[in-house]
Write a structure and sequence with these properties.
The complex is a heterodimer of chains A (229) and B (252). Chain A is mainly α and 229 residues long. Chain A has one domain: Up-down Bundle (3 helical TM bundles of succinate and fumarate reductases), CATH 1.20.1300. Chain A is built from nine helices and two strands; from the N terminus they run H-H-H-H-H-H-E-E-H-H-H. Chain A has a two-stranded antiparallel ribbon. The mean pLDDT of chain A is 95. With 252 residues, chain B is of the alpha+beta class. Chain B has two domains: 110 residues, Beta-grasp domain (Ubiquitin-like (UB roll), Roll); 117 residues, Alpha-helical ferredoxin (Fumarate Reductase Iron-sulfur Protein, Chain B, domain 2, Orthogonal Bundle), CATH 1.10.1060. Chain B contains eight helices and seven strands; from the N terminus they run ββαβββββααααααα. In chain B, the strands form two sheets. A five-stranded mixed sheet of chain B has the order 2-1-5-3-4. Chain B has a two-stranded antiparallel sheet with strand order 6-7. In chain B, a hairpin with a 2-residue loop joins strand 3 and strand 4. In chain B, helix 2 packs antiparallel against helix 6, helix 5 runs antiparallel to helix 6 and helix 6 crosses helix 8. Classes of the chains: A mainly alpha (229), B alpha+beta (252).
Chain lengths: 229, 252
Amino acid sequence: MQLLTSSIGRKIVMAITGQAMVLFAVVHLLGNSSIFGWLNGGINAYAEHLHSLPLPIIIAFRLVMLALVCIHIWFGIQLTIENRGGRPRQYAVKSVQKATFASENMIWTGCLLGLFLVYHLLHFTFQVTNPETAALQHLVPLHDQMVPNVLGMVVAGFSNFFVAFIYALALVVLFLHLSHGIQSFFQTMGWSCDKSQPIIVKLGTLVALVMFLGYVTIPLTIFAGILKG
Amino acid sequence: MSEHKTMTLTLIVWRQKNANDPGKFETYTAKHITEHHSFLEMLDVVNEDLINTGKEPIVFDHDCREGICGMCSQVINGAPHGGQDRTTVCQLHMRKFKDGDTIYIEPWRARAFPIVKDLIVDRAALDTIIQAGGYTSCHTGGVPDGNTIMIPKPIAEEATDAAECIGCGACVAGCPNGAAMLFTGAKVSQLALLPQGRPEAAARVKNMTEAMKECGFGNCTNHYECQVACPKGVNVKFIARMNREFLKAQFA
């Protein structure tokens, strides 16, 4: 399989797994924004809707996401190690024209996002970091049934400065990673030309910025006391 | 000389006896340099001084000195070919510098380009990539009539843009990963765009990118430093086209 061994093949694998995760992050943001009340029942209703999906679908979806993350990390590390050796000695004078802080530090922003992902899953999915506010342990009524109080858990989490700060920081890292990653996807897939490429770079950064702002609004509004449980 | 204002410059030059020598920077003073000297002529002046004082001259690659052969290969103050837009070192003139400037001169630095001596690197790896598929196989025989194969002008122009690559290796030198994607992309695209290159297109892109990897070049991470470094303005769109050709080749 040339896709898994060659230079461009592995880049394509990185691009596709990365872009699939970007799509997930977009849908995740749209779903999470139900916390602002556009959905009847808010984020609790949204969470209940997800959890009422057939179990095999949930498991399959989680396995696919896990596979995407693992493949992306595996090839990311492998390619980075190869690339670091590509120039054995650095120039005495560093002259950077087009590379950006984001493009040069993809491995580090990626590692930080990986660590954040573990924390985020332990915090809100497996709910082991703050058991006293775990949604699964605190049921609230919603449309004639008792459902986990996700809103209460999220609000309790982000009322803590340290937690809100970690999330905000992780979102800055996400912005950096995506500002290079989104445009990179189009270049690697060959879906760009000289006219579209500079536009794609700007649009990629814009999408990353919109996602950052969308996500960061949740911890910020909660910590500022605007959004209450 | 007397009618020209001259400059005195400090050069910090990479000196390395051979591939096994660790190498080090040496400092030289370039005297009597006019703004009309090209960068290579400035080095000629310095080398004459070195020879006259019984020292080993600075060894560097050069040939046509008119910006088309792709031999000159120096990283000047961190920028391949000195960083002037679409300019090779030989076409870089000293008017770009000021009296008293300090200039760092280094060879191309990439795993795939071992240093031969001082500023000369071995760029045979680029030839290896070409040998892997940078050609079309044609039958010999009578010369075909002109215009028997019609090629739309925009396509012909795009292929010519790709063919502007002079194979100097500045893209590799500029790439933080030491990747040869712009070089290979230009060669793959030039042939893939034209009807004569289509029959072998799938095998070509597979073989050339494989040779690229085997030669020790790094992988592309879309920094686009190569495009800035290229003295011929070869655009990274040709890397995108090569990626597209590579994907197509997987299903061919």
